[in-house]
Amino acid sequence: MNTSIVIADDHPLMLRGLTDFLNSKGFNIVGSATDGNSAYNLIVKLKPEIAILDIRMPYKTGLEIAEDCIKNDLPTKIILITFDKEEELYEKAKSLNVYGYILKDFAVEEIETCIEQVINNKPYFSEEIVQSLNSSPINSHLEELEKLTRSELKIVKLIAENKTSHCIAEELSISVRTVDKHRSNIVAKLGLDNKPTSLSIWANLNKEHL
Question: Which residue from 2, 32, 75, 79 puts its CA 20 to 30 A from 120's CA?
């Protein structure tokens, strides 16, 4: 199992614990860092398949690194680890299409499963965080699904796969403008707010019902 991984966390014990654990499981830890700048430089230099990043680090946060990776077309898949259960951070992470989001309390139990999913291009989000957000009103829109047309349902399913409007337009052979129009209709029908990430978060949280 030679998946190359960079790990960054400003807590030395957490960093060492995760590194030792993943080494013992046969993963290839190619670099580690205790701050965001060093972590980003390692990703640029080593182009690992996966980077496991603490959300809050000096100089650059895990979210800022994820953003820079997108801007600079870096192929590394990002897994974020955090103590935070804030919806805002989760939304931001989803909008950056990160592949994993794990609560530190469960990092050792979940990290192996998370990496295996990510290697297979499947996003993995800590059940704890999903449950705490699922208990929010986001889940009360399920009955609204019946109001969606077949085209709109198709689009919601593709959004749940983290596909962009451009990808969806190509896949369905329609224009990006049409996709965006469908998106705003879906948001209205589901009664979601107009934040750019609301629909993708809702779609991801309710994948199994689509």
Answer: 32
Q: Specify the 3-state DSSP secondary structure of 75.
A: coil
Cα distances (Å, whole numbers) of residue 130 to 35, 52, 134, 165, 206: 27, 19, 6, 24, 10
Domains of the chain by range and CATH?
4-133 (3.40.50.2300), 137-209 (1.10.10.10)
Query: Helix axis angle, 62-71 relative to 87-95, nearest 10°?
Result: 20
Report the percent of the chain where pLDDT is more than 70. Answer: 93
Nearest-5° Cα angle at 7, 11 to 100: 105
The answer to whether the CB of 29 falls within 8 A of the CB of 22 is: yes
Helix (H, G, I), strand (E, B) or coil at 45: helix
Structure-block tokens of residue 186: 């879906």
Tokens encoding 94:
């989803």
Among candidate residues 96, 97, 98, 69, the one with its CA nearest the CA of residue 81: 98
Q: Please report the pLDDT score of residue 138 as a whole number.
A: 47
Q: Which amino acid is at 126?
A: S
Return the ∠ at Cα 20 (arms to 14 and 26), rounded to 5°. Answer: 135
Answer yes or no: are the C-beta atoms of 79 and 99 closer than 8 Å.
Answer: yes
